[in-house]
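Changelog note: in this version the structure field was regenerated for every chain. One regenerated record is shown below for reference.
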Amino acid sequence: MATQLEFEHPIIELQSKIQELRQFMQESGMNLNDEVDKLERRLLELKSSVYSTLTPWQRVQVARQPGRPTTLDYIQGLCSEFIELHGDRNFRDDPAIVGGIGLMDGEPVTVIGTQKGRDTKENIHRNFGMAHPEGYRKALRLMKQAEQYHRPVVLFIDTAGAYPGMSAEERGQSEAIARNLREMAGLKTPTISVVAGEGGSGGALGLGVTDRIFVLEYAWYSVIAPESAAAIMWKDSGQAARAAETMRISALDLLELGVADGIIKEPEGGAQKAPAQTIQSVKHQVVSSLAELKQLSIAELLQARYDKYRDMGVYFERSVDKVST
């Protein structure tokens, strides 16, 4: 169940008034349909006004809402059949990252993604979607397997970041993520990543070096979470809203900066309002994009991927005059 966000209070209050009025009509037998219609039109206008003017921090809050589709939800919606594969063949299986082989419109595909829980018990089991190094090694094992059998790879990103604990560092967290970046850059098969909610730090990037990057409308993608950025910049994590404003982490910013290749529209108010509709929108985008990528040869695919990341960002070159002595 989604929680009520502060900026949604006027919407919730108006919805309650409409419900109370309908209940009064049912109990009293009075006809107040005109008043109900007016309030419902007002509700539509209010929703449009609120959700079309969300600040970056409010979008972060929507991206964190319970009830948004998880990787397993997307897998169920995208694939008619799916076999989950486990383990990194080195240490253990990491429940924070799930992956396996599925059939999408009759075509085999490897699907991998970070997985959050639906309740406290499952979140503890999934470590709140924060993967250990064995999770990234499992993901890489499945990607290399997909490369061997010429299967495209679809990845879902929804994590606040990789697990920063001592146990993860002892087992080579940074090395595991860095290896994924290197191997994904040269993976000889089409790859697509979808930022479905949170896309925080190297934990997200470890699944994000792909031919196409799509971001859901209310999702965010950044080198660091707003709270952590605020703690570093202003020594106050309470300045998260200010940090989100300056970091340019929303979907529109990412598209403008060239980080994202497209934005996937969400239902008004977020994917948690209509998960099935969101999953179908994601599937449509993934299927159409894979069809485009399959038209390219491996050499063309790798060159386009190289150019994509080489051109990302802005830099300046300045000549330095030689100083004679």
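Spot check on this record: The chain has a mean pLDDT of 92. Residues 9-28 form the longest helix (20 residues).
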